[in-house]
Amino acid sequence: MYSTTYALSMDNVVVKEVLFNPSLQRYSLDGSGSIKVTSIGFWERIGHLNENFLTGVVNTNANVLENALKQKHLTPLDSQDDRDVDLASAFKNSPLSEWVESGQLSRFSDSLTAARLGLTTEQLKSAEGLSEFANKRLYMYLARYGDTLRVNEKGAVEIRYQGKFTPWSEIPAEIRNQDLTPSNKKDLDNPWGDPHPWPYGPNGLMKDDMDTWDTLPVMFKEDPKRWGGGYAFSIATNTGKHPDPRTDHSWIRLMTPEGDVYSVKFDQPDKMSKQKSLPDPIRVKQGKVRLDCHEFISKRKKITEVIFATTPEGFQAMKAKVEEDHRKGILPYNLIHRNCAAYSLELARLGGVQLEAKTSFTRLALPSRVAHVLQRCFKSLPTLLQNLVHALTSLVWNLIQVWMGATKVDKKIQSMYPDYAAPFSSLWHALTDIWHCQEMRSPWSIGYQAAEEIESLRKAKLEKLTKKLEAFAATGNESQVLKTQKKIDNLHIWCPRQYRVQAS
Asked: How is the chain split among helix, strand and coil, in percent rounded to 5?
């Protein structure tokens, strides 16, 4: 009976993967050595609802991916933009990889790791323990710092350590064997687990973490010409054209004339922890100011930023607040009222920039197409009806928030910040606070809405300055030409007047 039940269970899984998994496609190599993807038609799927068909396709795909990756000669930074590497990464992380024969899966995985590091599979295997270490996102750290691995004249793989290339076998064991995975043990007394590891920094391999510091450390260096050569800051986000509350995030980068970049976030305990997220996801929780690992776990091409020039005093004020908030240890965090985006905007005010970046909860919670249709319908209504719909929608969202824990506060936050926590304990406050839930500050409202508006204003400013430049050039006014050209060169860090903090 047990074996029959198991067989039926296996058959159901096979049918699900063959019939309904859109990722089940055929891979082959074209004449240039790139991967060609061919879809599998519905009727072919219907005619092959069996395990042999499924394993045959996925094992062939794994072999094709392996051969394609072996032909790659990439740097870690190049690998982030390579289509074949993306296909291989998606395949490895999909349920389909579970049907690949173990030996083939191992060879394919090694070829993916080697391609990301700019090595051959033979070179990767020759450095004992490197493959296991590299699979903890080493390639993304290398990409962030613009570093590569190299092979010396003796055939040994070298990696930067303490500022110079060192053979992997000569790296201290405590560095090579460090655990790069934060603890998943979460409890009420310590919901944060272990500090987030920081295994690779500006000088190469190291053993550090992103939580233990008093003075804000430099995360990386860049050419200061990118932000005009002075003091500046940016609000960075990993959001796209459409909001995704599950993964969207924002953080602050502080930049100096010397090219130092500090990267800081405000967040809650491990987002993958079910105890933290469920139940009551909207309750007031513990939050912390930390260095932002998203610099390494988000692809650089998916990170957008809005850059603003600031004064030395503004820079110091922002840095001082970050260090003060970090020393406090625990701060109140709330998904609606005080999240990563709200903290980024709070810091931006100290730098002289005031962004509202408000988004309705309806826009974030519903699919983009549905939200757009509702928005068009809403705007077509008379003002009186708009106000009525807005109030009713707000009340509905407030009721949902109460159900999701809006009136609950972490015990430690209650004791450390009683004034902040008090209003959240009131059911009446939660139900009558009808405007806040419609004015949520989200990473998407910064990285897409606000960024697009600021870019539009900068383009309009560019048109005006270009006309002035042409006029000054026509009259031979050299000094004004130089001044206007400098303004044009710095437009990418210019803050429109309506977003500047007004002096009190």
From this structure: 50, 15, 30
